[in-house]
Amino acid sequence: MVTHSGDSGKKKAGARAKALAEAMALFSFSEPEPASLADIRFLTEYQPLRGGRNPDFDYDSGRLLRLKAGGFGTALHYMRLVMVAEEDLLSSGNAAVCVVPPHRVGTCTRDGIGLVAKELCKELPDVSNARRSLYRHTEVQKLSGGGARSLQIHLDSIRVSHRHLIQGRDVLLLDDIATTGFSLCACRLLLLKAGAASVRMFALAKTVHHSPA
What we know:
alpha/beta, Rossmann fold, 5-stranded parallel sheet, 7 helices
């Protein structure tokens, strides 16, 4: 068989162009603006302390802060609420649970939302425990500390590991408090690229944004 180097080069160039187009299509965010939280399910609202000057800061907001501090009893409380709210997905026989990693390098295994995921998977042994599958390899600044609000920042600083735990599964992606929704949306894209069948984004609370008077 005779191989023409020109034809071979064109085929390789075409293959590279196709792969690039597929990659760009994957990471083009064409869904509703994530800052609207339109695609994120949540249990309640979070009223930030705002330096202790927020008169609307309530009991639920304080409980969320206790969860972020690693409160085990609070984690159990939210685990039961998530079980009820997401019963359809968690009882499907094909579910996995993932957690949005913190701003620092590592996975979300010891934080409050990591405890919620851990106890959820202990309660439901048929659910794949994939809470270590999202890994923050580069630290980003917290939003509360003035960090940038960008989907790309999270895409560039998080990777998927232990892919076998999520491949072909319907993933429940958990976060504690969603402010812009960018971290959840970025993790959803990364999980789908890694082989998840579907990803449902779920935050325990969404931040209430107050406009200046």
